[in-house]
Design brief:
Layout lengths: L1 E2 L5 H7 L6 E6 L4 H16 L5 E6 L4 H6 L7 E6 L2 E7 L4 H9 L5 H20 L3 H14 L4 H13 L3 H8 L10 H19 L5 H11 L4 H13 L3 H14 L3 H17 L16 H14 L2
Helix pairs in contact: 5-6, 6-7, 7-8, 7-9, 9-11, 9-13, 10-11, 11-12, 12-13, 12-14, 13-14
Length: about 300
């Protein structure tokens, strides 16, 4: 649920409705029926898992928007699709009637998921062909169509970070922040985002490498500096160099800082692993040689 004003109306309502139905709830704090309807709408938004987007407009504070829609009483809900109002209702309807209203316009769950999967597959094809712009567009659409599709969201956030669009990546990642402990791929994205934020917060620029090298030369066991250097390399997407630095820590102290080096190394492996190529049924797709090599190096160090 998003609070909409005149400033973000174009983005959050009009543009958003081009890819997913947007239900606009006009309400006011003093309105009793609004307080009854609001929780029903929020419950259904969660239950429908991204098949429609709920936004709220305070009709007292946003009178220009209320006037645009000809709002005469509240609560009033207006549904937009393709940038245009297509239906609506007035009053605090019971949950069953709101559900029936939504089901007239919102695609079924299986259809939504299937469309998102098609978009994700098309995005991978576009990436393979070097068409980054099309891939980004299709992944964005896949996430908007099915916000519960964590595979598409991983690919979308990863591509944004590869393109250096950090703020957009952070915004796209925020809805799955709570899943990082149970989803290793989302956890890997968090490690990358944290590295980028760490480098920015400490002001490490392209010249920081010399500073790191000097400190490490003076003390091979300066693990804090080695780890900072590895994160600096991650922020530049110099993945194998970052893993080499992390291996230097692991060879000297396998469990340093609660396994921070090992966990970061594993996260990088997740980030650099390319999509598995399509193979005939029953066959095992080949492993990427770089990923395979660095997995073996990690095992040899950790198990030694």
């Amino acid at each position: 649920m998003i609070d909409v004003t005149l400033e973000n109306f174009e983005t959050e309502v009009v543009n958003a409705s081009l890819s997913v139905p947007v239900l606009v709830d006009f309400w006011a704090p003093w309105c009793g029926p609004c307080r009854s309807l609001g929780p029903i709408l929020e419950k259904l938004e969660t239950e429908y898992a991204g098949r429609f987007k709920l936004v709220k407009i305070n009709s007292d504070e946003q009178q220009e928007l209320a006037g645009m829609f000809g709002i005469r009483s509240i609560p009033t809900c207006v549904l937009l699709q393709g940038g245009q109002p297509v239906d609506g209702f007035m009053g605090a309807l019971p949950e069953g009637q709101v559900r029936a209203f939504l089901d007239k316009h919102v695609p079924p769950a299986d259809e939504t998921q299937a469309e998102a999967e098609v978009q994700e597959e098309s995005a991978q094809d576009a990436l393979a062909a070097g068409d980054v712009a099309t891939a980004l567009e299709k992944l964005q659409h896949a996430v908007a169509t099915d916000p519960a599709n964590d595979e598409a969201r991983f690919d979308y956030v990863k591509l944004l970070l590869q393109l250096g669009r950090v703020a957009e990546a952070q915004a796209a990642f925020a809805p799955v922040q709570a899943k990082v402990a149970v989803d290793r791929r989302l956890g890997a994205l968090k490690v990358w985002l944290d590295a980028i934020e760490f480098i920015a917060a400490n002001g490490y620029d392209a010249s920081a490498g010399a500073e790191f090298d000097a400190k490490i030369a003076a003390n091979k066991r300066d693990f804090e500096t080695r780890f900072a250097r590895a994160r600096w390399l991650m922020a530049q997407q110099r993945w194998t160099e970052a893993m080499d630095e992390l291996l230097e820590i692991l060879m000297r102290d396998k469990h340093w800082n609660e396994d921070a080096a090992r966990k970061t190394y594993v996260a990088i492996l997740e980030l650099i692993e390319p999509p598995k190529p399509k193979v005939a049924e029953g066959q095992i797709p080949p492993e990427d040689p770089v990923v395979a090599s660095y997995r073996r190096r990690l095992s040899s160090v950790v198990l030694s």
